[in-house]
Specification:
The complex is a heterodimer. Chain A is 12% helix and 15% strand. Chain A is α+β, with helices and mostly antiparallel strands. In chain A, a hairpin with a 5-residue loop joins strand 5 (86-89) and strand 6 (95-97). The chains are: A alpha+beta, B alpha/beta. Strand 5 of chain A pairs antiparallel with strand 14 (415-418) of chain B.
């Protein structure tokens, strides 16, 4: 990363619609191709993760994540949506929310019908 | 390193546009049947037309694999009246809808869709969509038929609404289109319809479009054309920075089909009908918060102290058990479900719900906020069906809700899902993720092309399918079925139609209009600023309350946006150009809503339509359609009875009209289960 500070506009809101794991992404751009609103652009260098150019056009539908064969993508709901998803455990009365710092263990049950 | 800013900071340079630029270059594509809009209606239309032997081309703004409002899934299929377990006939269903809408709905589309909806769903099954509990996960459940393994929603006695595992439904349609070698044009914004002799009102012979990645210009030549595009979600409300995650339609929703049809001279009805923009994106991520509507129908709601909110039938009688929430009550033959494109329901067909005075009970302190959805109070089967079968298959729920929430630890067996904390009046509707209604935000609510029993528009060669372009038409399943039906009729027409002749002058004018935004002075505003201005005019001048002066002033201001800010607006690349051209569709749709609103000189609760200068509510002489179209650029209107579809030149019964028009079923071979 360069030490220079550049003049860049404020980041769009939301800052990004999804997150890439650079160690898993091979730059195949299947996610770029399937996105209904063309949020991402191929990286100028081959085999690199796409650039999220238009995050404010992201519909947060998750089809890019479904399309990825490498598990390189994850959903990043806008903070304003994460903070609104709250739940309370009946037995203990504990409060949880999406995006909290120390989340409870994941619920590993797959959806009905199973994946294809 | 995946955002634009990160790239700039690392490389010290702005990345170049990744696709080749082909501004002004044109390609001509010929088809028997051209389909504009590649959601579920358009995709099913493409498959149906190909089955008829037609050469098919489909054009889509996104990518056909997952595009459209239905592209990310569906969990239940309404009006499957002919499934073997249904106790509701197509006629019962159609009459219930028409009565609920007080006649302001589409009897043709309703009758067709509930007559052929089940067959259409079976076709989806053949393409690979799971529509039965084949893994016996729900064996013995009250909502399941153990013989057919079908599962039902809302009304477990009458069984006309089928729960399905539709998360991959759009991919199934896509692979079928590929198999049938349908010409697919993705990333293409359609800008106009081409008409014979460039005449407004003439036969439709094709369309023009611009590729949003390369800027290439397409001229589509077609014998028959089907409009299967979406609504206009960006018309009254434009703040994607805050709202896109919470909306049920994408940024591509800009009323293209309506706009190009209007410009070509097609006739429209009910464009004056708008609804509170409850779902326009100022709420919460769809299905992400506690509620008890639609997919969550039947869920128990408790308050902050664990006190349960009682359920009531539509006549105000309290329900004693959870099971009763899924059954019609005394005085009801059957219940209609929510999400069928109806703004109001007659009580004798309405679903059971939370108390209508819940806002007042909250104000009185009877229930303490926040409220919670308590799935643990349902049977294990019902809980798993709502959270695991329906949440997980409904649109925008597989990754955004099911995967995201379970990975974060949410467990419906153990946890209460909180409803948003809102103004008390926002709890009037049990669909809490819609958020607090914002009075000046409206959305289109049923206006579209006037169609006949062939789903043909008033223009020769132009058909319409889908719940946005066809007036008063339903939701997801209905879109498939209309696509399938309209394509049969369009292919049939194309069989005998003359070769389409495109007027070169019309193409050249359209090309000039399309490319000026990339060629002119860069001082102009961008598409987002233009879109926000359009939404402002619509909110201010065409909200729930309007009068002749606000409407005529609003029309002038839309025209100014077109001729002033819009004419000089600048697009830096093909993506921005596509979005810019969509803004001009939005302006046109805004004009249509205002023109239709001027024509209706009364107020009516049925259309949630209030004229301050004509305050009399529902005068009987105004209970009629007011079809409108353009001729030589001027608005022409006429009157049409609400039951026009059962009057001359049509037969007087639904069954007879359907028998005369549906046709082709034998030739196509209706699939068997």
């Amino acid at each position: 990363m360069s030490d220079k500070i550049y003049m860049t506009p404020n980041s769009p809101t939301p800052n990004r619609g999804m997150r890439f794991d650079a160690t898993l992404c091979n730059g195949c751009n299947l996610c770029v191709d399937v996105c209904p609103t063309d949020v991402m652009m191929p990286h100028p260098e081959k085999h690199k993760a796409p650039i999220v150019l238009y995050p404010e056009e992201c519909w947060f539908c998750g089809v890019c994540i479904e399309e990825c064969n490498h598990g390189a993508l994850s959903m990043s709901h806008p903070a304003g949506q994460n903070i609104s998803v709250n739940w309370k455990r009946v037995e203990t009365g504990e409060y949880f929310r999406l995006g909290m710092k120390n989340p409870p263990p994941p619920n590993l049950r797959p959806p009905s019908g199973g994946r294809r | 390193m995946t955002t634009w800013s990160e790239f700039v900071e690392q490389h010290g340079t702005v990345p170049e546009w990744p696709y080749p630029i082909h501004y002004d270059q044109e390609s001509e594509i010929a088809a028997d049947v051209l389909i504009i809009g590649g959601g579920v209606a358009g995709s099913h239309a493409a498959i149906s037309a190909a089955h008829q032997g037609a050469k098919v081309v489909i054009v889509e703004t996104g990518h056909l694999k997952r595009s459209g409002s239905g592209g990310t899934g569906v969990d239940h299929w309404h009006g499957a009246c002919k499934n073997p377990c249904s106790k509701v006939t197509p006629l019962d269903y159609t009459m219930a809808v028409m009565e609920s809408a007080h006649g302001y709905s589409n009897g043709i589309a309703r009758y067709i869709t509930c007559t052929e909806g089940w067959e259409t769903l079976l076709e989806c099954e053949q393409m690979g969509v799971q529509i039965r509990d084949v893994h016996d996960e729900f064996k013995g459940a009250e909502f399941r038929d153990d013989e057919t393994k079908l599962m039902f929603g809302y009304d477990y006695r009458n069984r006309h609404i089928v729960r399905i595992w539709g998360f991959n439904l759009k991919q199934c349609l896509y692979y079928e289109m590929k198999r049938l070698r349908i010409g697919m044009y993705n990333r293409t914004v359609v800008t106009s319809l081409l008409t014979e002799g460039a005449r407004q009102g003439g036969r439709v012979v094709g369309a023009t479009g611009v590729n949003m990645r390369t800027g290439e210009f397409y001229i589509f030549k077609s014998k028959a054309t089907i409009i299967a595009s979406g609504g206009a979600g960006r018309l009254f409300s434009f703040a994607p920075e805050m709202t896109a995650a919470g909306a049920m339609s994408t940024m591509n929703s800009c009323g293209t089909g309506h706009a190009i049809g209007w410009d070509a001279g097609a006739e429209f009805v009910q464009m004056e009908q708008t609804a509170p923009g409850r779902l326009s994106g100022y709420g919460y991520a769809p299905y992400s918060v506690g509620n008890t509507s639609n997919t969550y129908h039947g869920t128990s709601i408790v308050d902050a102290n664990g006190k349960e909110v009682p359920w009531f039938d539509p006549f105000g009688r309290e329900l004693k058990t959870v099971e009763e929430r899924f059954l019609p009550s005394q005085g009801q033959r059957f219940q209609l479900g929510i999400g069928i494109g109806l703004q109001m329901y007659a009580d004798q067909y309405k679903w059971n719900d939370l108390p209508r005075d819940l806002p007042e009970r909250i104000r009185r302190g009877e229930f303490q906020l926040p409220l919670y959805a308590d799935l643990t109070r349902l049977s294990e089967m019902e809980r798993r069906c709502i959270w695991g079968m329906m949440i997980g298959n409904e649109g925008k729920t597989r990754i955004p809700i099911y995967d995201t929430l379970t990975k974060a630890g949410f467990d419906p067996d153990k946890d209460l899902l909180q409803a948003p904390v809102m103004l008390p009046e926002a709890y009037q509707h049990s669909n809490f993720w819609g958020g607090t209604p914002i009075p000046h935000l409206r959305s289109l609510a049923g206006g579209g092309f006037l169609v006949d029993w062939d789903l043909r528009t008033s223009l020769e060669g132009l058909y319409a399918a889908g719940t946005s372009p066809v007036f008063g038409a339903g939701c997801h399943g209905e879109s498939h079925t209309m696509g399938r039906y309209a394509a049969r009729k369009a292919a049939d027409y194309a069989n005998d139609a003359a070769e389409p002749v495109v007027d070169r002058k019309q193409v050249d004018a359209e090309k000039e209009r399309a490319y000026r935004h990339v060629k002119q002075n860069k001082d102009g505003i961008g598409w987002k600023e233009l879109n926000a201005a359009i939404a402002r005019v619509m909110q201010d001048y065409c909200g729930r309350y309007k009068n002749e002066r606000t409407l005529t002033r609003g029309l002038s201001l839309l025209n100014e946006l077109k001729e002033n800010e819009g004419a000089t607006a600048y697009a830096a690349n093909p993506h921005e150009l596509g979005r810019m051209l969509e803004c001009f569709s939005l302006i046109t749709v805004g004009e249509m809503v205002m023109q239709a609103s001027r024509l209706r000189k009364c107020s009516t609760a049925y259309l949630d339509f209030y004229r301050l200068d004509y305050p009399q509510m529902d005068p009987p002489e105004w209970e009629k359609h007011l079809p409108m179209r353009q001729e030589d650029g001027r608005v022409k209107s006429r009157e049409l009875p609400l039951d026009f579809h059962l009057r001359s030149p049509y037969a007087s019964s639904y069954e007879e009209n359907y028998a005369r028009h549906a046709g082709q079923l034998e030739r196509q071979g209706a699939p068997q289960s």
